[in-house]
Amino acid sequence: MSYSPLVSLTPKDRLKTIFVRVIRKWEFRGINDDGPLQHIDLILADTQGSAIYAEIPPTEAEKHGRIIQPCQNYIMSRFRICNAKDYYKSVQAPYMLELTCHTRVSHTEEPGSFPNYVYNLTPFSELQQFVGDRKKFHDVLGILIEAAEPEWISFSNQPKPNLRRNILLRDATGNEVRVSLWGQKASAFNIDNLNDSSGPSPTTVLLTGCLVKTFQGQLYLSGHSACHWYINPEIPESETLLQSVGSQNITVRKTGTPLEDLPVPQTQQNKEHLTLREMQDIDPYEFPEKGCMCTVTITRLIDASTWWFPSCNFCNKSCKQEGCDFICYECGTTNKFSYKYKLNFITSDGTEEAEMICFGEIGRRIVGKPVETVMRTPKGNDLLPLDVASIVSSKFTFTVLMTEKSYRVPKKSYRITSIVTAYGKQKITPSLSQNAPQSSQDIGTSDKEIAKVETISAASCPSSSQLYGLLTPTKTLPIQSMHLQTPEKSVLLSSKDADVQVVEDAEATNKSAKERLYTSVMEAEKSKVPNKSSDKDMPDIPTELAKNDAAIPSLSTKMAEKQEPINQEKTIYGKGTKSSKK
C-alpha cells in the first residue's frame, strides 16, 4: 500500500493515507494540570523524516486519545488538513493535522525508518530575543550542571500551589540557562541513577517545547505540558557538545529537600465572595489586600476603549509607538514587544453594575483565542472583532482587586487577577430591577407609573406568553393577533354610514394621488343616493314609530343649522383621512 508523505499534504487533500510514528504526545489543560481537557497534541513523523503537528479535539479525546500512544506506528486516513496555528508552534510547518470523528486510526507493527527525535535547536546566545515570544516553542541542548528537588510554589491568583523543579544547563561556550519544570513535569524528571551507571561523565539533555521568560530580570526557560526531554540523546549536536567538554568530569549537583520530607502544602483559603453592591459599599482603604471573588455577567463593552496593546517582553509595560518603532520607556528597549489583550467592559450580577478591566492571559482565556489571531479576523460595524464582541453575556467568577481610579471617584472599578470559574454564555443577562430594590427618590415620574402598573395582580393581567405577540410585534403578527395587522392600502373605509363599510379596490394602488382624490369625491356623491338593496335587508319597523323618529330632529341637525353652510366630504382610505371642499 502506498502512503502519502507529510510534505505533500494540503488542505484540499481528503482521501490520503499516511504512515507515521508518534514522536511526542501531551494533553493541554490550561495553566494547571487538573483543569478541563482542551485538546491532545501530537508530533507525527514519517519515514522521510518530515514532521507535522496534529491535534485531537476534546470531543474525540476518548475515541483517539486512548489508542494513540507515543513511540508507536499508526496508519491514519480521513483526517483534516488545515493551516497551522500562528502561536505555540512545535513544528515549523505550514499545515497541521486534525483528527475528527471520521478519522480512521489503526496501530501497525509494520517497520519503518522513522526519526527518534524532532527538534529545532535555539542557541543559548539567541534566547534573549525570544523573551515573551509565544509564536513557537524552543528546543535547547546542554550539559546538565545542577538539578534541584521539587518544591511547592504558591501564587496569589491560584488557590492551589504548583510543583516546580529547577535545573541548570550549560552549552559549549560556557553559557548557562535555568529551566523551570512545572506540575507533573517537575515530578517526572528523575536523575537519581544517572551518575551511578556512567560515573562522573557529562550528561547531555535535549529539552523541547519550552518558552523563554524572565523573572526579576533573570532569563529562564519554562516547561509545562508541551515540554519533553531526552537524556544523552543520540544526535550529532550532542556528540559535538561532548567533544567540546573533552575529558572533564562533570558531576550533577543536587540541591533542595526531597519532596517527601517537605510539609504538606496548605490550600489557600478561598477569598470572600461578595456581590457588586457589597463591593461598592466597601471603603477603598478597607478593601481586602488580596482581593475578593464575585460572580458576574459581562453586559456590554466600553466604547472608545482599545482591546489590545503592545506589551514589553521584559517589564510587561505598554510600549509607545514612534513612527514605525515601539519603544518601552520603562526598560529602554525598542521593538521588543508582543501584542496582549486589554479588555474593558461593564459587568452586572443583578445587584449593581461595575467596570472591570483585564490584561494578557486573562483576556485570552475570556476570548478563547490568541490576540494575534483575533487581530486578523473580520470586524463588525463598531470596528470590534466578532470574537471580542461575543464575550458579552458570558458569565464568570473572577478574583478582583480595586483599581487606582477607585480611590479618586465614588464609583469603583476593578482589575481581574484570575478566573475561578467560567459558566459560558447566558441567555438572559441580569438587570438591576430584578434583584436590586430602588428607592422612590431614584425613580422618575415615568418609572413610578410603570411601578404602579407592575402592582396589578397577576389574575387581571395576561401571562408573558400571551403578551409576547403584543409587546414585541413583528412584520407578521401571530394568528391570534391578526386583527391588529395594519390594513393594506387597497382597503377603503367609508365614514358616511353608521357602520364602517370595507370596500376593496384592486386598482387603487395603481392610481395617482389626484386620481384617488377624484375617486373619493365621486364615491361620496354616490353615497348620497339611498341604497334600495340595503333596505330589503333591514328588519321591518312599524310605520308609526318610523314617522315619529323622523319627526324628531337630531342634535347633530340642530348644530349643523347654527353653523355656516360648509359642505365637506370626507373619505377614509386605510388609516389616513382625506377631505375635499366644494
**Helix content bin:** 10-25%
Mean pLDDT: 78
Strand content: 25-35%
Rg over C-alpha atoms, rounded to the nearest angstrom = 39 Å
- First-to-last CA distance: 99 Å
Kindly name the structural category.
Answer: alpha+beta
Given the structure, what is the number of helices?
15
Largest sheet, in brief, is: 7 strands, mixed
Which word captures the global form? globular
In total, how many beta strands? 28
* Neighbour order of strands in the largest sheet: 5-6-3-2-1-4-7
Could you name the ranges where pLDDT drops below 50 across 5 or more consecutive residues?
434-506, 532-539, 554-582
Report on the architecture of this protein.
Residues 135-218 form the Replication protein A OB domain. It holds the Pfam family REPA_OB_2. With 582 residues, the chain is α+β, with helices and mostly antiparallel strands. Helix content is 18%, strand content 31%. The chain has 15 helices and 28 strands.
